[in-house]
What does this fold into?
Amino acid sequence: MKLDPKRESWMTAPKTRAVLDALGPEARFVGGAVRNALLKREVSDVDIATPLTPDEVTERLTAAGLGAVPTGFEHGTVTAISTGTPFEVTTLRRDVSTDGRRAVVAFTKDWKEDAQRRDFTMNALYATADGEVVDLVGGLADLQAGRVRFVGDATARIREDYLRILRLFRFHAWYGKGDLDSEALRAAATEKAGLAQLSGERVQKELLRLLAADDPAPMLRTMAAAGILGELLPGALSIARLEHLAAIDAGAFFTPDPVLRLAALLPHDVSVAQSVAKKLKFSNAHAARLEDIAGSKEKIVSYLSVKEVRKLLYRIGIAPFRDRVFIKWAEDPRESNAVNWRMLLEVASTWPRPIFPLTGRDVMLAGVPEGPLVGRILSEVEDWWIDADFIEDEFSLAERLKAVVQATAY
Ligand code: ATP
Ligand code: MG
It folds into this structure.
């Protein structure tokens, strides 16, 4: 099996060539890039394997004028930076001892040993610089058949690193065909308690990758039935709502938004969102978004008028409005409402948010002395202005201000 470098721009790009030239003829592409190229799917990041030690890799990259960042030095990984693009360069290795989370590794010159320490056969495919595919563990046949199969014994491989349980479901959601490998599923279910040992960051990353698959729902159902999902996420989960959201994305060619999908999966309960965000070490921005969606109270229906949409947009902002629309759309069983839901998103993305034309100065000029009353009157007039659909007529606004001042002040 050969990949044609002429058709694989990621292989021949000058920045890729620069890294390969620095590392010499023994370096090979590995992992996602090879797998995805063989499937004719998009190649996003390029990983490289080499028999050179991390010290040698660093020396050679530096001598070639490329960046060399020791991102996982003791595990053999040096990240090469070539024209701003990172390439993970990892020394061939085998795992000497493992504790379910981390491995102590030994470097080797043996490609087969390196293939055997990788998780799934389809992830253990290498390609030389001229595109020759090297398959040492039967990965090609599995890839073609859509079989996500552990290299070696499933239980043993899971015990080395429990994250592989989640990677099993993630890769099947992306590249699998038909049912999950039954031996792998049995092992994952039996070993699920080990998930508790993993760091929140690693679980978060895998879970989001799973949720970003075209349709993660079948795998989530399998995980729920095996008691695995409950180890990760508390509360009553809405797989059906998430499934509908995925169908909406597919139908409208929206790019999957894994954090939004997680929000669709979680119950409408701020405390659950908080505990998930904490346990999975979400960034402040993602945590705030999950909590905001879980606590949303606005009435959002497909038949909102344009005026109501503008009012909501002004009050809560575009991004939170869009999030709510997607969640409510995902709860709406009537497919014929899709046009209305899309219209709401359209209004949200095109409406220029007006700026309230009055300031505290205008209120004081109307005779109110400086103090807390100024702000109260201002927001009272703003409420009226919003209800009047952001009326632009300055005269009406001035009249309203005068009326509010007369009724409130003194
Ligand atoms: P993608 O980049 O599309 O997520 P990938 O296959 O490149 O997919 P990475 O997480 O980037 O996945 O890992 C690169 C390679 O390293 C994998 O293909 C696999 O061979 C190996 N690998 C990564 N994580 C593990 C793990 N937990 N256990 C065993 N091998 C792993
Ligand atoms: Mg990768």
Remarks:
- Residues 31-32, 45, 47, 118-119, 123-124, 161, 163-164, 167 surround adenosine-5'-triphosphate (ligand 1) (CB under 6 Å).
